[in-house]
Amino acid sequence: MTGGTLYLIPAAIGDPKGGDQAALVNATIPAATLSVLQGLVTFAVEDAKSARAFLKAAGIRLPVQEVSITEIGHAPGSQDLKPLIETLCIGRDVGLLSESGCPAVADPGALLVRMAHEASINVVPLVGPSSLLLALMASGLEGQRFAFAGYIPVKDPHRARTIRDLEVRSRVAHETEIVIETPFRNQALFEALVTTLHPATRLALAVDLTLPSESNRMKTVAAWRREPAPMLAKR
């Protein structure tokens, strides 16, 4: 390995809604991860504004305005990553920071990590919260075999077809299927799942993980249908 190190830094999950973000960061990000983060001066981030707020809450040593921040996009080719690789190659460390949870997992960053490997740069993932694993842990569903399907189609008939395909895959492979959605589409996704899935299928719902309003519930689809739908609209 040559040059600096690319650190993959998990961010706190969610927004404390008027609460103390620094307290949330200290409660959910290990001290060893914060120690590495606090010593960095160069970051690749999903969103600069939220990254600055997180870095400030995490107690970064430099004034936030003196930190070098480069936004990277989801789409391949949306950002020239060569300057970041060049920074690593001359021996400077870089932190890859997600907007929420773990970078490069349902978030941008995989291409930067790949380019670092190709340049023989040391890549170090740091410990922190992952909404996918936390939801799986709390679900009571199969934890030995599981698959992450990411965001499923928003509109029918593609959405309903995808839900049915995932249900079949779950039964045939005896595995848990994990999907996520943006806050303002959570309600529509939940209603589509409850409408489309077989009544005997188990459906787990994880909301506001690591926040005071956290909720983890698992029921059969038939049981979900018998009660009022939870309010999942963006708050």
Strand and helix layout:
Elements: E1 2-9, H1 21-28, H2 31-38, E2 42-45, H3 48-57, E3 68-71, H4 82-89, E4 94-97, H5 110-118, E5 121-125, H6 131-139, E6 146-150, H7 158-173, E7 176-179, H8 186-196, E8 202-207, E9 215-220, H9 221-225
Parallel strand pairs: 1-4, 1-5, 2-3, 2-4, 6-7
Antiparallel strand pairs: 8-9
Compute the number of strand runs. Answer: 9
Strand order of the largest sheet: 3-2-4-1-5
- Order of secondary-structure elements: EHHEHEHEHEHEHEHEEH
In terms of structural class, how would the helical and strand content be classed?
alpha/beta
The best one-word shape is: globular
Radius of gyration in whole Å, from Cα?
Answer: 20 Å
Written description of the protein model:
This protein is an alpha/beta fold and 235 residues long. It is 36% helix and 20% strand. It has nine helices and nine strands. The strands form three sheets. It has a five-stranded parallel beta sheet with strand order 3-2-4-1-5, sandwiched between helices. Helix 7 links the parallel strand 6 (146-150) and strand 7 (176-179). The model has no long low-confidence stretch (mean pLDDT 92).
